[in-house]
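User: Hello! I'm new to structural biology and keep hearing that structure can be predicted from sequence alone. Could you demonstrate with Cysteine desulfurase? Please show me the input and the output so I can see what each looks like.

Assistant: Of course. The first part below is the input, the amino acid sequence of Cysteine desulfurase. The second part is the output, the predicted structure written as tokens.
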Amino acid sequence: MDTPAPREDFPILQRTVADGKPLVYLDSGATSQKPQVVIDAVNRAELYSNGAVKRGSHQLAAEATVTYEEAREKVARFVGADPDEIAWTKNSTEALNLVAYSIGNASLGRGGERFRVGPGDNLVVTQAEHHSNLVPWQELALRTSAQLRWISLTEDGRLDLDTLGVIDARTKVVAFTHVSNVTGAISPVADVVAAARAVGALVVLDACQSVPHMSVNFHDLDVDFACFSGHKMMGPTGIGGLYGKRELLAELPPFLFGGSMVAVVEMDKTTYLPAPPKFEAGSQPVAQAIGLGAAVDYLSAIGMDKIAAHEHALTVRALEGIVKIPGVRVIGPTTTFDRGGAVAFAVDGVHPHDVGQVLDSLGVEVRVGHHCAQPVHRHFGVDSSSRASFAAYNTEEEVDAFLAALAKVRPFFGLEDE
């Protein structure tokens, strides 16, 4: 039952569910659990240093500002970036919308030429995208009369590199997921970036499902923008990050306006602060940022390579077990080559919500639905699925409990195989 993240570090994992059964939490792809050190960091900030950052000269404001910016430095190191390349957002959804909407503002004449998008241009996504990295680009295409294109998927849900030809000389943005939240497939970042670089397109990476589970360095990946969410990496909700190359953030216009992001305000015009404050209008998520800083301290102390190896072993165990259960089909690759720990599956004759309820009654908690990724489900011929996803605190015994519970689903509904 050894795990890289000791179970006793997570208070919620000590509780029972379903009439006293041990909690088997396999939904970290949606939101992860928090260790006590993160909870303590948030509580300390609220209890002892609650002040408005960068808005006062008194001690509480100064303390809050210092710890808030220290958190930015920690998170930047964790993702392979410089502190002035990280802007705080509520989550990855906001970060992606920030980039897409700001590019739209630039296209109306408010930013650098490299951000201009218009008729005859195209934006490229993939069929594997979470809606948060699809819908904003659909909207940008509508606002600018650009064309939306996409990279297709192979039969098992990986990016089909034979369709990289949709990226051409009129491509302005290529936005894609690092790791699919449905299939777990890891995208060939280098191949996609190379295709985008060949035509001068901007690269936007959704790193929600990679940053919490493996070592990620945005500088090494050479992406222009990237996003991640705190609540998926053992941090609080309400905090996420947008990474952007320094020179791009300097040129990109803001899309939220108000306090904290201005340098000089006159009645007829305003001068904005440089990035990242330029993108952080309004009151800041101070305690949440501090909590995320504590989360990356916790993850770093364990070691992301160690976490990745542990989750890989759990994924191997789960996939090998699922394929042995009659009437259950994996949605995505059945091998663990270039694969993360999100394992979606369909149970013949049983709706995913019913699957989830049976598993929940046995103490096993998984995600059900389309996971905010309808196109990839459509690619596999289903409307929705159930999904188990693993984190550093999960154990082999929990994987076995999940497999044992899953094997009971079809019999529960009287769907015995001949």
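User: So the tokens describe the shape?

Assistant: Right, they're a compact way of writing down the 3D structure. Reading them back into a model, for example: The two ends are 36 Å apart (CA to CA).
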